[in-house]
């Protein structure tokens, strides 16, 4: 059984990029010295400006799009935890090799999804809310919104955790739609019918 991403999910991926959900997160120096909302906010506009400045070049070369996402976004994502949440209960039964394979293929899928939607980034800025958490909390939700000249604000939220002194994103939402829930719904039929190996094979086929 193969994975067929629904129109809402493809739109979700495009919305995340156009909203600079992921591309607003550059590798953070001294991440242990900043609060979670500062981690999200500090580098957002810098990365957004880079996208705007290089938009024609990036759109013209898919390899550069993939490289930008891989270099600027992925180091700030806890893909193992994200993948574990997406897979759900079958994760506990998977072997270490199967888990590694799912993580790797899911990362490729997301990289292609976000890179493919990069051309939709326009004239936007990110406004991050004050953090509603204790200073010692290491797993928090950061809320924010994208401000646009051509439409109403887009509400965003990030689930971030602090591990080994660094903040990393493991889930995010656009207008209340969480990435983990969306992909979990897409993967569940494959897991139910074909198991872990079936999901790995389906992701490999999807990623080409």
Describe this structure in words.
- 53% of the residues lie in helices and 19% in strands.
- With 208 residues, the protein is of the alpha+beta class.
- It has a single domain (7-207), classed as Roll (Nuclear Transport Factor 2, Chain: A).
- The longest helix is centred in the last third of the chain and has 29 residues, at 179-207.
- The model is unreliable at 17-23 (pLDDT under 50).
Could you outline the blueprint of secondary structure elements for this entry?
Blueprint: H1 7-18, H2 36-42, H3 44-60, H4 62-72, H5 79-87, H6 90-93, H7 96-116, E1 124-128, E2 139-148, E3 151-163, E4 166-174, E5 177-178, H8 179-207
Antiparallel strand pairs: 1-2, 2-3, 3-4, 4-5
Describe the structure concisely.
With 208 residues, this protein is of the alpha+beta class. The chain has 8 helices and 5 strands, in the order αααααααβββββα.
Entry keywords:
Nuclear Transport Factor 2, Chain: A, 208 residues, globular, five-stranded antiparallel sheet, 5 strands, 19% strand, alpha+beta
**CATH class category label:** Alpha Beta
Report the count of strand segments.
5
Mean pLDDT: 80
Radius of gyration: 17 Å
Shape, please?
globular
Return the structural class: alpha+beta
Strand order of the largest sheet: 1-2-3-4-5
Instruction: State the distance separating the first and last CA atoms.
Output: 15 Å
Strand fraction equals: 15-25%
**Unreliable residue stretches:** 17-23
What CATH architecture would you give?
Roll
Number of helices: 8
CATH topology: Nuclear Transport Factor 2, Chain: A
Full CATH superfamily name: Tgt2/MlaC
The helix/strand series, from N terminus to C terminus, equals HHHHHHHEEEEEH
